[in-house]
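It would be a great kindness if you could assist me with a short task in structural biology. The matter concerns a single protein, recorded as an amino acid sequence and a row of backbone structure tokens. The record follows directly beneath this note:
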Amino acid sequence: MKYSIEVGKIVEGALKHDQAKVLNYTKQLIAKLENDDDTRAAAKFQRLLFAQAETVLTPMNGSNPCSIPVDFESRMMLADIIYPEQNDIKVVLSKQNAEKLESFILSYQNADKLNSLGINVSNSLLLYGPPGCGKTKCAYLIAKQLNLPLVIARLDSMISSYLGTTAKNIRNLFEFSQKMPCVLFLDEFDAIAKARDDNNELGELKRVVNSLLQNIDTMSKDSLILAATNHHQLLDSAIWRRFDYKLEIELPDRDAIAELLTLFTSNLYKFSKKETLEISTLFNGLSGAEIEEIITKSLRKSIIHNYPFAVSDIYEELFTTKNVLPQNCHEPRELLQIKAKYLRSRDPKVFSLQVIANILGSSKTTIQKLVKEVNP
């Protein structure tokens, strides 16, 4: 059945007297009908919306049915919402990660086809891996690709010191996320999903995990939930089973690093193939966030000191960021030697003596002597 997600949500909302869910998913249905050029059906549902401006359906509470829930104690909102028109995120992933992410997106986009065959839609994705590799950006990308709002849980306001309030906040957020078409995103997921056999955790946090599991279980298969963590080993084993897709976002490979160079320099500098190979080799093993920091700082220095940006600025910033140079070392020859040996150690095939000499503004003969020289 086409539009099965929207029709199911509208019926569910009507049966539960949930005005927000009915209105929001009707609007989503109208948008899909218009996109499919079914203007007659779209106009019909649009007229129904106008005619029911004073609907007899009653929302679950007396407040604005679309208002973001708040924590009882702090009155802080439990989530932030990023709407599609505000979502201009750009994500660079390795080929393998990009393919896995695309598979998850296609599963939801083909929900009608899957439902017609009696196959459940994959609606949950757990992202894990080292910090700074793009897990949060992946959530933005999924919401952008599906043209849905991204509801980002605010863990600082969700976790309460009041007994039972954290579990209630989780329930309220899950209920809110099912009132409208959206992607619910739980970042820093380990904060509320730690293993229940961890003796260092209080009983209250263990009850939070139970509440989280219950809310995921009762969540409609038509709703989307994403979670991200840097510490997947801390998660409760039952949490893993609740997610259809598990995707480890790894450090960027060399092809991804090459794309990041262009993205982070905003086309202010055009790298040659040789420069791209050399910098990608040097950045291998760094996260996307670390690469962005190094490039941004090197660009910033050239701008505020009013000199043309050069690739050498990236190398110098890397030496500083990675603490390659000792702070108490000021002798030019020793500094040159440390830099040359560091580059040579990264990959002798890429960083030949001549390449290192060109990068450091020295001669091949000098670099050869420095690299071979044994430190006392």
In short: Residues 19 and 59 are 5 Å apart (CA to CA). The domain at 68-248 is CATH 3.40.50.300 (Rossmann fold). Residues 54-65 have pLDDT under 50 and may be disordered. The first strand starts at residue 79 and ends at 82.
